[in-house]
Automatic annotation (TrEMBL):
<feature type="domain" description="N-acetyltransferase">
    <location>
        <begin position="1"/>
        <end position="131"/>
    </location>
</feature>
<keyword id="KW-0963">Cytoplasm</keyword>
<comment type="function">
    <text>Acetylates the N-terminal alanine of ribosomal protein bS18.</text>
</comment>
<dbReference type="InterPro" id="IPR000182">
    <property type="entry name" value="GNAT_dom"/>
</dbReference>
<comment type="similarity">
    <text>Belongs to the acetyltransferase family. RimI subfamily.</text>
</comment>
<dbReference type="Pfam" id="PF00583">
    <property type="entry name" value="Acetyltransf_1"/>
</dbReference>
<dbReference type="InterPro" id="IPR006464">
    <property type="entry name" value="AcTrfase_RimI/Ard1"/>
</dbReference>
<dbReference type="GO" id="GO:0005840">
    <property type="term" value="C:ribosome"/>
</dbReference>
<keyword id="KW-0687">Ribonucleoprotein</keyword>
<protein>
    <recommendedName>
        <fullName>[Ribosomal protein bS18]-alanine N-acetyltransferase</fullName>
        <ecNumber>2.3.1.266</ecNumber>
    </recommendedName>
</protein>
<dbReference type="InterPro" id="IPR016181">
    <property type="entry name" value="Acyl_CoA_acyltransferase"/>
</dbReference>
<keyword id="KW-0808">Transferase</keyword>
<keyword id="KW-0012">Acyltransferase</keyword>
<dbReference type="InterPro" id="IPR050832">
    <property type="entry name" value="Bact_Acetyltransf"/>
</dbReference>
<keyword id="KW-0689">Ribosomal protein</keyword>
Amino acid sequence: MERTLFGISAWTRQMLAEELVGPGRTYVGAELPGGSLVGYAGIWFDGRDAQVMTVATDPGYQGRGIARRMLVTLLERARALGAESVLLEVRVDNAPAIHLYETLGFTQLGRRRGYYQPENVDAWTMQLLLPREVREVREVRPEQEAS
Ligand SMILES: CC(C)(COP(=O)(O)OP(=O)(O)OC[C@H]1O[C@@H](n2cnc3c(N)ncnc32)[C@H](O)[C@@H]1OP(=O)(O)O)[C@@H](O)C(=O)NCCC(=O)NCCS
């Protein structure tokens, strides 16, 4: 699936194996009732922000909401870990992925020229801020505010 989806940029079996057990990684997989893997996605939490490392859905199962479900699960995980934001890079010509990220609330931060090599394709960097939930609500009267 990795080679089919990412071509010459695909990670090798060994790179994938090392990535799965890397520090701060959380990976999820989408499997059919029989146990076949049809999607996988992962994040790296560095203690402050989370980075989307990869998102992939088997071509035969795309367009059914699998990537969205995997990402929603990972965003919940990032929030639970206390990440301030979630960051990612995406090829500027990857319309399905950009659409998916935008509908999840990601916005474009900047453009990295020639980020994808050897194809020499630019990347958008995108960010989703995860504001901390309000933990305490305290009444503040106008006279207290002024002092
Ligand atoms: C990007 C990718 C992960 C999406 O996976 P998916 O399981 O098909 O995504 P979903 O079914 O959850 O769809 C998410 C959104 O993408 C849109 N989408 C999916 N395939 C699309 C296509 N071929 N063209 C346009 N939009 C598409 C859907 O419309 C959907 O939006 P909606 O819910 O508003 O309709 C999948 O296309 C893929 O594996 N691509 C190759 C690897 C890749 O590019 N990964 C991202 C690297 S940054």
